[in-house]
Amino acid sequence: MEHATRLRQTRVGNNDSKNMADKNGFMKALKCRECGREYPLEATHVCEYDFGPLEVVYDYERIQKSMTKKAIESRPQTMWRYRELLPVAGDPTVGQQVGFTPLVKADRLAKRLGIRELWIKNDTVNYPTLSFKDRVVSVALSRARELGFETVSCASTGNLANSVAANAAAAGLKAYVFIPHDLEQGKVVNSLIYNPKVIKITGHYDEVNRLCAEIAGKFPWAFVNVNMRPYYAEGSKSKGFEIMEQLGWKIPRHTVVPMASGSLLTKIHKSYQEMEKLGFVDGGANSVHGAQATGCSPISKAQKAGLDFFKPVKPDTIAKSLAIGTPADGFYALRCMKQTGGHGEDVTDEEIREGIRLLAECEGIFAETAGGVTVGVAKKLIASGKIPADDSAVLCVTGNGLKTLDAVIDHAGEATTIGPRLREFEAMLDDETKSTAKA
Amino acid sequence: MELEADTIGAAIAALQAKYPGIEERLVDEAGEVRRFVNVYVNEEDIRFLENKDTALKDGDEISIIPAIAGG
Fold this sequence. Notes:
The complex is a heterodimer.
Chain A: H1 2-5, H2 17-24, E1 27-32, E2 38-39, E3 54-58, H3 60-66, H4 69-74, E4 103-105, H5 107-113, E5 117-122, H6 133-146, E6 151-155, H7 159-171, E7 174-180, H8 185-192, E8 197-201, H9 205-218, E9 222-223, H10 229-234, H11 237-246, E10 254-258, H12 263-277, E11 287-293, H13 298-304, H14 330-340, E12 344-347, H15 349-363, H16 369-383, E13 392-397, H17 405-408, H18 422-438
Parallel strand pairs in A: 5-13, 6-7, 6-9, 7-8, 10-11, 10-13, 11-12
Antiparallel strand pairs in A: 1-2, 1-3, 4-5
Chain B: H1 8-18, H2 22-26, E1 37-41, E2 44-45, E3 62-66
Antiparallel strand pairs in B: 1-2, 1-3
């Protein structure tokens, strides 16, 4: 572990604060979320004392001076417009074009779901690999470069592997991606095409993850979601920053976030808190809700039962991108929901497909299964009054439907086949009119 | 390794006797097993049994594993 994580010593010889700032940007240290012990800003993710996860600590005083609304608004429309709050010391060298995806006002879907106002934060079109993972990967790889790594890696349910493979290729970094062997074909090809090494593990995601933790301890590689996790995870905050800016510097009253490890939900919440702390948005009631698939819902089940901890499960759902049975941030996601008055909810495979179709039919957005989960859960929360009909909500849609075609391939309806004759076409229309009238 | 104990709490005390200092790595100031340490008795998480009071019998297998971040 020593060898793998201490690839570059932090040379702080004379404690000069300007040198520190140049070396570390606006970051101060890594800190254990449990006991508060601090560590240097290296590739390490676990507290040596109590195994708690480490988190990046920022110098908010210095950030306050550098980051104003005017400064942000003058920068290019990418996630890096918020760079003081992202854990990269210098300018990003990977993923400079990522983020600032559309925030779409979804009036037709709002009407169908029975809510006054609805927005879709649409990462189905994120650059370059059509999922929110490009946000966390661009941060992890930029930072990995700063720390001297030449090989990057990940354990993945699919989207992360795609993103690491693509961004590593563009950055000239070597990449190894580890996936469960039964991942959708679209996702596997979507990684292979960039020519990384793709390794299928005959197990589910949690077993892939455990193996990667062992490999990370032995090889001097940057595992984006293992030893680089404290930096990687922070990239998700950019989704929340963009939502607030695109709403005119406001925190949404309700946010619905899909949960795999639970990390995205906690970082969206953190983004709201940071913007409030810096005075860019007003505080006030805002609830963050978590969405899972019923076939893998350890966090939502715990939330509904009023528990502070979850019971690990073996995933069984078409929503493979959310199929993490032992969610690393499950505890913190539960705490966020509790603190903000948010709710956990989950949906069946059929409800997931319905959610995908609803979003596509109403708003012209084709999301992957995680998007179907988010829409399906929003529907349930609105129907049950947990999200009041009078309120406004933002749904975090995290990946493109082209990546999970398998899930909807026999459920997207049928095309009609006729011969190339006008009378056949008119007869078809006639039949349709008659059957609509009957119905 | 093998040890003799009739509850998880007693097992941790026995470990402490053999490896001084290990107890505070596993157990917090309130006396509970730390959140990011998973303890299993025959593959059952003690959080779903009786936590530190979980009773042990001859031949039981205890696993103490740091919770692994990921995903």
